[in-house]
Structures are given as C-alpha cells and as structure tokens.
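Thread title: Can someone regenerate the structure for this chain?

I was given the following input by a collaborator and told the matching structure tokens would be attached. They weren't. Posting the sequence so someone can regenerate them.
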Amino acid sequence: MASGCETCGMRKRYESNPRSLLGRLWRWHIGWCPGWRAYMKGLDPDGRASVEARLGELDAQAKRQ
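Best answer:
Regenerated them for you:
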C-alpha cells in the first residue's frame, strides 16, 4: 500500500516554510503518527537517512528564523 506521506500537502508546506502554522502542525503530528512511522520503516536505509537529514536541515532553518 502506498503512503500519502511522500505527497502530503502539509509536508510540502513544512518544506517550503517550516515556520508556517500548518508546517509546524505537520512536524508535531509526525512525532506520534503511526502512518509516518510505517512510511519511514518502509524506506530503505539510504532513503530514511535522506529524509531524516532533510528534516534536520529544515528544523535548523526554522530555529534560525
């Protein structure tokens, strides 16, 4: 079953503006979302590392602003 996490509109909001309300809501949501956990588990190790690195960059960007 394909996950909607990769094409999620809220995720795109977070990636374009991590400080937006919907972006921050999405970031909070993935902390407990079972769908996000399943999505991450389904990725290969390189894909998982890539997603985690990108989120880390965006988190750092949000803190600088």
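The mean pLDDT is 91.
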